[in-house]
Specification:
Length: about 160
Amino acid sequence: MLVLFCGLAGTRLVPAADVPLPSSAIADKVVVLKSERKLMLMKNDKLLKTYRIALGTDPLGPKTRQGDHKTPEGSYLLDRHNQRSQFHRSIHISYPNADDRTRARRFGVFPGGDIFLHGLPNGYEPSPNQTFEDWTDGCIAVTDPEIDEIFRAVPDGTPIEIKP
């Protein structure tokens, strides 16, 4: 855990990401900033918590077709929770939306689908000092304890805005 010291002896500041989200917290919107690798849970336009994320292996630009390893950009819904995922847990993102389908048609390609916010693959045990690079096929990944928190705090139908 990263600990920052300030001018007062014995005072510690713990990064917000290390502070558990209160069990009563319910988000009404999720915002993803791809370039900053951040996912923010929001309630009434106020920040509840920020998480560090991993994206698709080709993260620059919007997803345009199946198999491009890009994470979509745009407005979607987190429309269904999956406790029996190939990852620790997952929440489906409603990609493709109408704009994505129109763009794919224009290029003569299939837009793809099966985009999720999820934890780590089942059975995977990261080392304590491991850092994560972008590794998904276009999904948004967090650690297993983080997806547990998000899974509880984000009801089906919650809007998610994925920005460049």
